[in-house]
Automatic annotation (TrEMBL), chain A:
It comes from the Bacteria. It comes from Actinoplanes auranticolor. This is Uncharacterized protein.
UniProtKB/TrEMBL annotation, chain B:
Keywords: Glycosyltransferase, Transferase. This is Glycosyltransferase involved in cell wall biosynthesis. Residues 221-361 form the Glycosyl transferase family domain. The keyword tRNA-binding does not apply. CDD domains: GT4_PimA-like. Residues 96-208 form the Glycosyltransferase subfamily 4-like N-terminal domain. One of its GO terms (molecular function) is glycosyltransferase activity. PANTHER family: GLYCOSYLTRANSFERASE (PTHR12526). It comes from the Bacteria. It comes from Actinoplanes auranticolor.
Amino acid sequence: MNVLFLALGAGRRRAVTEESAKVVADGGTATVLVAAAKQWKPGDFAPGVTVIDSSVLHRDQLPWRIERLVVYRGPRFVLKRALGRRGKAAVRAYEKKVADRFHRRVFLPVQKKLGGPSRSRLIAQHIKRSARPYEWIVITDSRSMPEAAEALDTLGAGTRIGLVWSADHIS
Amino acid sequence: MTVAPGDRHVTVVSPWYPTQMWPFRGAFVQTMVEATAHGCDSMTVMHCDRWSARVSDAEDRAINQAHLALLPRTKRSSPTVGGATLEYLPVPMPVGGDFAFVANRHAATLRAVFAGTPIDAAVVHVHEALPSGWAVLEHLRPETRLFVTEHASFLEQLLDEPEAREMYDKVLDRCEHLFVVGDGTRDVLLKALPRHAGKVSLVANPISFTEPRPEPVTELRRWLFVGGLIPRKGVTWLLEAFAKCHAEDPSLTLTIVGDGELGTQLHERTAELGLETAVTFMGSVGPEVALQLMREHDLLVHNSRWESFGVTVVEAVAAGMPVLVTRCGGPEETLAGIEDAAGELVAVEEDDAALVEGYRRLRDRFPDGLDLPKAQQVLDERYGYPAVAKMHHRVWFE
């Protein structure tokens, strides 16, 4: 049983961690796709559960890589160098107040206008290209619903992948 | 499937049912299903689970649209207790909607699921008139009998909202009977909607009395709290009371089962009091684990400010443990006539004094004056599965 959990809203965390752990304990494979890994703690997931930060899906996209370099990695490097010990806190504040806002309010809408691949298309691509085909998608929170619906539309009517709201209903 | 007249097919609709996310929430609905499903030809439980998120209006619209598009494509059924079938339906909800808004969201979800076809059941039994009763109204066949069980501890606030009260009134118009789990809930309801007095009566949450405790309680050393870590449960005062009793007897321990908004504060206070080794926080656990913990502890301490029924208290007696419990509405009704046999009832006070005094009284008279087998027998007759199942089957099918 190969299961993909969509947890882009990080809203129902206990359901995600418990259900993915149960899939692995039952001998299956669980992959959890999250919007940003930093929203989760390292010990949240059971051993054997694979967690993918959704930004990884964009790594082949040039605009995305440029944005990462200019808006995130560059300022991070400069702040750490310039502020030394206080750099970490400054990076956190900068990313929360500037970089993440820019990403949500400017980068994503512009990218969408210019026809760049949306996250849902990249999710569909990830599902299609997975070395081991996913048998089930679990939609774990309401913020994941729009992208799940779009990804399924991209995959087309012929997809055999099952869709559930909870891994408890996989059979 | 089409239910023939006379078939005993029941559909239960509830906003609460235990899940991995909230293992405790709706345990009383699950026990009701377990107790009653066997007397039916079939039973379907529709769990309309609120998925809250802090979202903008635009995000909410996109979520709603996607939700309705995804519903027909999802597998939602799985077996549940008593041979019943569970249908799981998330209901996306922005944070902050009023009761009428919430009920309308539930109605929209069921509208998408049923797509104009009526619910295929002779009996529809909903838990909570709002949202569940409101949500099913447009999907009932004329001959389908509708029943409601009201548990809501927030009923007074709900009925204070004019639109929600009007919706509640319409549900009561259509239903044959509404059950409440305590006199307090009935009083609140009839104060707001007195014309429905003839339809309202008491029902018990069913409790299983079949699992024996391996060893009887011999001393009141291992305290247990089971419930949400929220102000209404009085859990901060419980911790303070425990600290005072622990100072008198350092062998005392306290296990806190549940989680909630006061979790961090309680952890910090436990550290301040130097009680880290005596107090154990278990987080939320499933109903089975909670019952097992009751069989492994000596005293349930339940310090609620208000309860409509207080199912944990009856479960504790069923598990063979004495209870130290506040007179918070439900417990004085459920334990009526067996207060001393089951443990000690104390007043609801905004400090720890009543609980400390209550514990001392109970400790000093233990085991004299307690008669747990008698308390179990009385409660089994009132709230055991056979009693509750018989009552439901009588009203549903006779």
